[in-house]
Amino acid sequence: MNNQNDMASHYDATQNLDDTEQQGFSTEDIIWAVGIWSVILTLSPVIVFYMLMIA
Question: Pick from 8, 4, 28: which is nearest to 16 by CA?
């Protein structure tokens, strides 16, 4: 019985951490977004040039 209570309190603690994490952007989210946008902005001229040469 005590083991279940420990698991429940641990679960509540992780849920609370997740709730506070959702309120703002973490550093990992910002790095991920910057990485994605840098790839998109780097490849977009290449794709446009390729489409112009093919068409």
Answer: 8
- How far out from the chain centre does Cα 44 lie? 22
| Residue pLDDT, tens place only, 1-22 | 555 555 555 555 555 555 555 6
- In the predicted model, is pLDDT for residue 49 greater than 80? yes
pTM: 0.45
Give the Cα separation of 49 and 47 in Å (integer): 5
Say how far apart CA 45 and CA 12 lie, in whole Å: 48
HEC string for 6-49: HHHHHHHHHHHHHHHHHCCCCHHHHHHHHHHHHHHHHHHHHHHH
- Two tokens at 14? 């992780």
